[in-house]
Amino acid sequence: MSIYALNKRANFDYQITDIYEAGLVLSGQEVKSIKTGHINLNNAFVTLKSGVRSELCLINCHIPLYKYAGNVAEYDPTKARNLLLKKSEIKRLIGKIKEQGLTLVPIKVYNKGGLIKLEFGVGKGKSKIDKRETIKKRETERKLRRIKQQY
């Protein structure tokens, strides 16, 4: 399993409770671009597209045009990409989003059995105070590790 992209800000900005795995609907040149390591999850988010069928979409994920893709007219690198999930999982996520006011945050994009998968989490945004506590815990852990290494 190779990781193509990682959203480092996800665990810092959100308190993630549940993690889900979904497939991505991509074109051929997008797959090649991702496999060469050209994908960016910064400022990306997962949203619910309601209509006849409820769908989840990945918004603002930047996948640039593949270097060797011939004539691709009007390619949008930040277009909405649908996620492949079961109906039961989508219904469960809709309930969590609407009732509890939680958000869906993309965490990483990776390869699993030749397929490109997206791992996203259900989380609640952290306040400034929570972020400060996270930084403080991280600093104390670093100091303890340094002290242990000396002795």
Enumerate the spans where pLDDT stays under 50 for 5 or more consecutive residues: none
Range of strand content: 25-35%
Alpha-beta content class: alpha+beta
- What is the element string, with H for helices and E for strands? EHEHEEEHEEH
**CATH level 4 superfamily:** Small protein B
**What's the gyration radius in Å?**
18 Å
Count of runs of 4 or more consecutive helical residues: 4
Tell me the strand order in the biggest sheet: 1-6-7-2-5-4-3
Specify the biggest β-sheet.
7 strands, antiparallel
CATH topology name, in short, is Small Protein B, Chain: A
Mean pLDDT: 85
GO molecular function, one term: RNA binding
Subcellular location: Cytoplasm
Protein name: SsrA-binding protein
GO cellular component, one term: cytosol
Structure notes:
It is found in: Cytoplasm. GO terms for molecular function: RNA binding. Pfam families: SmpB. One of its GO terms (cellular component) is cytosol. InterPro entries: SmpB (IPR023620), SsrA-bd_prot (IPR000037), SsrA-bd_prot_CS (IPR020081). 32% of the residues lie in helices and 33% in strands. The protein has helices at 10-13, 28-35, 87-100, 128-150, and strands spanning 3-6, 14-24, 45-49, 55-59, 81-84, 103-112, 115-125. With 151 residues, the chain is an alpha+beta fold. It has 4 helices and 7 strands, in the order βαβαβββαββα. The mean pLDDT is 85. It has a single domain (3-126), classed as Small Protein B, Chain: A (Beta Barrel). A 7-stranded antiparallel β-sheet has the order 1-6-7-2-5-4-3.
